[in-house]
Each structure stands twice: as structure tokens, then as C-alpha cells.
Amino acid sequence: MPKYVRIENDNVIECLDYIPENPQGDWREAIDVIPNIIPFKQIQGPHTFDISKTPVEIVWSVIDLSLDERKQTIFNMIVDPIQLLLNKELNKNLSDPNQNIDFKIVENLINQVRNKKFEIEAIQTHEEMDQYIQTNNIVP
């Protein structure tokens, strides 16, 4: 989708998905230049504008994740579905007073979370993290 930027004194002042009805100033078409991101290793960062290009390029940067950030991301991805099951079990009597919480299920789910936390905390390098992701078939 094209974008449009308004330039003043060689600086981008506005960036919109459309040109205003009565455009004032120097409006130019712009495009996003989005980098390839390595899943679970990088995220898209802030952008800059290259107004020397036609169309103007909105150039997005890449941020490399630290090992701790990667660990937290993977842990959250693995634990989120377990947390949903745990919440469902713990909220049984809220939705239906005749249902009882099965504390064996609760204990099993909590142990799953603890085991995943232990596994992930044991990872010491980016290479070990890559192997963990591959071995566990974790996909973005």
C-alpha cells in the first residue's frame, strides 16, 4: 500500500496512507523497505526516511534479540496454551457451580510450565536456542 510523506526543510513532517484533500507543501509518494527478519532472533526496529529516493523510502531497521529476550519469547509461546488450559480448569466453578476443579489436572499443567521453564533456563547460547527451537518444532 503506498504511503505519502510531507517534506519540510529536508525532513519528513507527516506520513499518511493517503494524500489530504487539499495538500499543502511538498507531498511525495513513499514505500516501506522492510528487511527480512530471522524468526525468534530478530525483530523489526525503528525506521528512517530516505528522501533522496523516488519514491521516498521508509527504511525499517533490524534489532537482534539477546539470548534472554529469545528465551522469554519462546517460553511465552510454549506456556500461553498451557495457561489457557489452567485458567479454564481453575474457573470451572465460576461458570458452573456444579463443576469441581480437578486438582490433578492443575498440578499436571503447573508441572508442564515448570519443566519448560527449567529447559529454557538451561539454554546458554544462541546455538543451543536454535537447536531447542528446531527440536521442539516451534514455528512463528
Low-pLDDT runs: none
Cα separation of the termini:
24 Å
Total helices: the number is 4
Main beta-sheet annotation:
5 strands, mixed
Radius of gyration: 24 Å
Shape: elongated
The percent range for strand residues is 25-35%
Strand order of the largest sheet: 2-1-3-5-4
Query: Can you count the beta strands?
Result: 5
How would you classify the helix and strand content by structural class? alpha+beta
Structural features, described:
The structure is a single chain. With 140 residues, the protein is an alpha+beta fold. Helices cover 41% and strands 27% of the residues. It has four helices and five strands. It is elongated. The model has no long low-confidence stretch (mean pLDDT 94).
Short description:
The protein is α+β, with helices and mostly antiparallel strands and 140 residues long. It is built from four helices and five strands, in the order βββββαααα.
Q: What would the keywords be for this entry?
A:
5 strands; 4 helices; 140 residues; alpha+beta
Give the arrangement of secondary structure elements.
Blueprint: E1 3-8, E2 11-16, E3 26-33, E4 42-50, E5 56-64, H1 67-90, H2 92-95, H3 103-121, H4 126-135
Parallel strand pairs: 3-5
Antiparallel strand pairs: 1-2, 1-3, 4-5
